[in-house]
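Q: Got a minute? One more chain.
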Amino acid sequence: MNLPGIIQGGMGVAVSDWRLARAVSCLGQLGVVSGTVIPVVMARRLQLGDPGGHTARAAASFPDQALVERVFSRYFIDGGKAEDAPFAAMPMPSANPSKLLVEMTVLANFIEVHLAKEGHDGVVGINLLEKIQVATLASLLGAMLAEVDVVLMGAGIPRAIPGVLDRFAEGAAAEIPFDGTDLGDTPAERLRLEPADVLEPFPAPLPRPAFLAVISSHVLATTLARKASGKVDGFVVESSAAGGHNAPPRGGMVPGETGEPVYGPRDEPNLDQIRKLGLPFWLAGERACPEGYQAALEAGARGVQIGTAFAFCEESGLDPSIKARVLAMSRRGEVRVFTDPQASPTGFPFKLVRLEGTLSEKDVYEARPRICDLGYLREPFRREDGSLGFRCPAEPEADFEAKGGASGAATGRKCLCNGLLAAVGLGQVRDGKPEPAMLTAGAAAAGVADFLPEGADSYTAADVIRAVLKT
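A: Always. Here it is, folded:
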């Protein structure tokens, strides 16, 4: 597949929603939806009354309408829930997820990709996190049913994913290893999904999407190119300037003067070695400018991946008030992005925009009761009786440690699931009050006001593409 020069990053939870991906694809570039926590996103859109009817319209094309009816009857609220009412509880992901959660995950990914592909012939991708293994198989199956063109995956070593794409394209069962740091010496856990258990008959064969691995080093690129379970079609090479999760520094998580992890020359990807692999690659991290794009081409890249600039455009899923505040701060030169070594339950550094009223502020973080009620970043562990348990460093510290979590390992951890949902207007309501938001963006957030047309207070995805390509 001859993919375009600009890949729109798959950001956060529903920041890269179908509207943004569709807009970018219609402009001739690769639009990407985020598959992270997407069943919760779909369920909450339904509880808001499905504004615009988009979810129902896409669901009408799903090949199993009985499945659609089961999900809609459980979550759809005609006219939407009361503003101060909480969203309904969701099944927690696990190694043996409920049938409802599997069906919701397949359907939600289908809907998001279907809407992004609606009405044009551009290419659409989906971004998933290797760290969220419990949702991976159902997410891929749903996206492939909607004929997604590209799968992008990082935040780990997605060696098993190309083989999964091959298997699902044939309508066959697929499995991936279930990794954990505290599973003991017992036989490795496996996650498995049989397409016919979700849809019978299953509409195989399906188009096999291209696979791009999101990496930060030539070592990982080489490993995937040579040892993946199937064909790797290329790489997105991220620097530490990119938003969301960053790879830990090679020198360890040693904080500098600002409290952020210190990155150095050893953390720069070796592009000479990546070029030798003979696969196309795109560079990510502060590339949303003509100079960054041209430098990527001169380095042998096919193009660039851009996240932050698209995150604050009109079509993104971010809450409009958050976008407006950050753009105003950018105009004044006041945007500060902090690479927090403790925020993410995954243990990876995570970039936070310092924004009043959000979890980037100490008092807001400390005032929020610690709770893990969505569970997408929980880690598996082996109980004394040999059974599998789950714990999250963002849950109450006493609960985490009672499950064998290391003392102090939960300190400073933030609930990404709830905080990122709040940033797109889908935060839970607790005791009549909405969850505080969490905003992630790359270092380039400081300059997003540069994309504003003269006299305007907002900009579009087209403005970003024009600026980068100088068209």
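A: The chain has one domain: 6-318+451-469.
Q: Perfect, thanks.
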